């Protein structure tokens, strides 16, 4: 580059602080390796050949990319750029504070990509423990595995979901006794053991054994089945918004049940995960 810019081997060698013959040998060796002449030489100066001009343009691009790669590596190492693999439960996605966390994080850290993956709480916890996810918004089990940390986000009630035409929708109050002869639909234990165990335990304490007629793979499917009258369901209400058309929700007297939504991550996580936790903490302190 120095020889091309100065059009002189002597001036280039002085600029690079090496002897002229050594620089001439380096240029000749490069031309020999490439099998093309990079410079047209005269007694007064050297000038790039067309091949040399193309080579110089590519060399400058490569050097710029190397510089950018170094800068990006430094930003990643300092937690200012990179990718966070972030899981979220399907109902957590309806929570306003989760949505606000996504929004504020993208604004504050535009070079950090949030790669979002919808998964059940149990699947997220297992994936984080294995290092396949960096963090996740989950409904907390009774106990987290060792090596994982959590930050409580909010507490969500479990509501009774009924089809609009169900007779119980006309009741001012619904009790556990009213549900003993009803059919229920819900997520299977294998899909979401955290939710299943919480609901089952609460129902048994209240003296209710729901008669399950259909198990599902997601809350969305559960709500659709409720909407067509296949059964009732006990479902998580994230900020009590966006329920399926044809479905109404009601509290149940005598059934006290809620689940804690939290951000979970590996305790010895990366600087990237720390940025996400900081964003959430800022929102929590502001009372969002």
Annotate the secondary structure layout.
Layout: H1 2-6, H2 9-16, H3 20-34, E1 39-41, E2 46-48, H4 50-77, E3 82-88, H5 96-108, E4 112-118, H6 121-130, E5 135-139, E6 148-163, E7 183-187, H7 193-205, E8 211-216, H8 219-227, E9 233-236, E10 247-250, E11 258-266, H9 271-286
Parallel strand pairs: 3-4, 3-5, 7-8
Antiparallel strand pairs: 1-2, 5-11, 6-9, 6-10, 6-11
What does this structure look like?
InterPro entries: LysR_HTH_N, LysR_subst-bd, WH-like_DNA-bd_sf, WH_DNA-bd_sf. GO terms for molecular function: DNA binding; DNA-binding transcription factor activity. Keywords: DNA-binding, Transcription, Transcription regulation. Belongs to the LysR transcriptional regulatory family. This protein is an alpha/beta fold. It has 3 domains: 2-77, Arc Repressor Mutant, subunit A, CATH 1.10.10; 82-153 and 260-286, D-Maltodextrin-Binding Protein, domain 2; 156-258, D-Maltodextrin-Binding Protein, domain 2 (3-Layer(aba) Sandwich). The protein has 9 helices and 11 strands. The strands form 3 sheets. Strands 3, 4, 5, 6, 9, 10 and 11 form a 7-stranded mixed β-sheet that branches. The protein has a two-stranded antiparallel sheet with strand order 1-2. Strand 7, helix 7 (193-205) and strand 8 (211-216) form a beta-alpha-beta unit. Helix 5 packs across helix 9. The chain is rod-shaped, with a radius of gyration of 32 Å. The two termini are 56 Å apart. The model has no long low-confidence stretch (mean pLDDT 85).
């Amino acid at each position: 580059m120095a020889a091309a810019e100065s059009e002189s081997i002597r001036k280039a060698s002085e600029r690079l602080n090496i002897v002229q013959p050594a620089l001439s040998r380096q240029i000749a060796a490069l031309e020999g390796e490439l099998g093309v002449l990079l410079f047209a030489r005269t007694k007064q100066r050297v000038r790039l050949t067309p091949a040399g001009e193309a080579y110089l343009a590519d060399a400058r691009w490569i050097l710029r990319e190397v510089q950018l790669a170094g800068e990006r590596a430094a930003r990643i190492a300092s937690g200012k750029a990179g990718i966070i693999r972030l899981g979220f439960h399907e109902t957590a996605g309806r929570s306003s504070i989760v949505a606000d966390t996504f929004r504020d994080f993208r604004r504050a850290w535009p070079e950090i990509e949030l790669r979002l993956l919808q998964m059940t709480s149990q699947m997220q916890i297992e994936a984080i423990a294995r290092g396949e996810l960096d963090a996740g918004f989950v409904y907390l089990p009774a106990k987290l595995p060792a090596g994982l940390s959590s930050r409580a986000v909010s507490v969500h009630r479990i509501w009774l979901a009924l089809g609009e035409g169900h007779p119980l929708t006309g009741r001012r109050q619904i009790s556990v006794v009213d549900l003993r002869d009803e059919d229920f639909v819900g997520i299977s234990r294998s899909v979401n053991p955290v939710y299943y165990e919480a609901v089952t335990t609460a129902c048994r304490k209240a003296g209710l054994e729901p008669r399950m007629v259909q198990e599902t793979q997601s809350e969305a499917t559960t709500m659709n089945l409720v909407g067509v009258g296949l059964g009732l369901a006990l479902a998580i209400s994230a900020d009590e918004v966006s329920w399926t058309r044809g479905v109404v929700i009601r509290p149940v007297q005598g059934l006290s049940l809620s689940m804690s939504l939290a951000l979970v991550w590996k305790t010895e996580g990366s600087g990237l995960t720390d940025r996400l936790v900081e964003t959430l903490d800022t929102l929590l302190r502001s009372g969002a």
